[in-house]
């Protein structure tokens, strides 16, 4: 048989379990059964019933334990990012994010959407090119080569890979046009991110925050 250990002064369960013969710490008692220390406690105010005596006056009362009742522990402290409410179904304190926390999460999502947008493929003159960081670095190196060729009045062309893996030959002008398209898109991404963050700061409700959505450029 398993017994639960509780504080005799408060009736609060310690979370410990024991058998009947185990020596308990000072000030603690045991009660038969397993109980939830976060939603139950022993009612130490309860009094045992009158003893049952046999014909000779001997006490033959069955073992008595005080009743176990529902218990709502003190709420955790609210802070700037979460508040707490008691849930009667789970018998637990459940946290909910504050508006400030929701805004932080929304801001992080906007930043991630902007970063993904900046690295997405870009289409120029019906041709789609990759725009991930490694490709951008290589592209900028090639622009430097193209500019140097132009300064030396030398012909320049480059076999550049499309997003589908096929190649297309770009002139220096086409290469620079691709870079300009990326820079323009980057500027538009930054502008949208600033605008949405401004809206986010001004938002006063969950609905207003939910209405702030990234639009792919």
Index terms:
single chain; 217 residues; alpha+beta; 2 domains; three-stranded antiparallel β-sheet; two-stranded antiparallel sheet; 11 strands; 23% strand; rod-shaped
Short description:
It is built from four helices and eleven strands, in the order E-E-E-E-E-E-E-H-E-E-H-E-E-H-H. By secondary structure, the chain is an alpha+beta fold. The chain folds into two domains: 71 residues, no CATH class; 112 residues.
Gyration radius, in Å: 36 Å
Helix content: 25-40%
Q: Strand order, main sheet: write it out.
A: 2-1-3
The unreliable regions are none
Backbone structural class: alpha+beta
Shape: rod-shaped
Mean pLDDT: 95
- Share of residues in strands: 15-25%
Structure annotation, total helices? 4
Report the sheet with the most strands, covering strand number, pairing sense and barrel closure.
3 strands, antiparallel
Tally the beta strands: 11
Task: Give your account of this protein's structure.
With 217 residues, the protein is of the alpha+beta class. It folds into 2 domains: 3-73, no CATH class; 99-210. It is 35% helix and 23% strand. The chain is built from 4 helices and 11 strands. It has helices at residues 99-119, 133-151, 172-202, 206-210, and strands spanning 3-7, 13-18, 28-32, 40-42, 68-70, 82-87, 92-97, 122-124, 127-129, 157-161, 167-171. A 3-stranded antiparallel sheet has the order 2-1-3, with no helix packed on it. A two-stranded antiparallel ribbon has the order 4-5. Helix 1 packs antiparallel against helix 3 (172-202) and helix 2 (133-151) packs across helix 3 (172-202). The protein is rod-shaped. The model has no long low-confidence stretch (mean pLDDT 95).
């Amino acid at each position: 048989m398993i017994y639960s250990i509780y504080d005799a002064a408060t009736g609060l369960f310690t979370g410990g379990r024991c058998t009947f013969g185990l020596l308990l710490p000072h000030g603690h008692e045991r009660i038969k059964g397993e109980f939830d220390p976060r939603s139950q406690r022993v009612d130490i105010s309860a009094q045992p019933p009158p003893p049952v005596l046999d014909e000779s006056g001997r006490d033959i009362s069955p073992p008595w334990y005080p009743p176990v009742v529902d218990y709502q522990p003190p709420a955790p402290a609210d802070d700037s990012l979460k508040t707490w409410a008691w849930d009667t179904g789970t018998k637990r304190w459940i946290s909910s994010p504050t508006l400030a926390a929701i805004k932080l999460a929304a801001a992080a999502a906007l930043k991630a959407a902007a970063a993904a947008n900046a690295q997405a493929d870009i289409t120029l003159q019906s041709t789609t090119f990759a725009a991930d960081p490694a490709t951008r670095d290589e592209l900028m190196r090639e622009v430097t080569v193209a500019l140097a060729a132009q300064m030396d009045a030398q012909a320049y062309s480059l076999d550049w890979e499309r997003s589908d893996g096929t190649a297309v030959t770009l002139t220096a002008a086409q290469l620079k046009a691709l870079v300009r398209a990326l820079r323009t898109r980057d500027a538009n991404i930054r502008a949208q991110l600033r605008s949405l963050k401004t809206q986010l700061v001004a938002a006063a409700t969950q609905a207003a925050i939910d209405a702030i959505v990234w639009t792919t450029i």
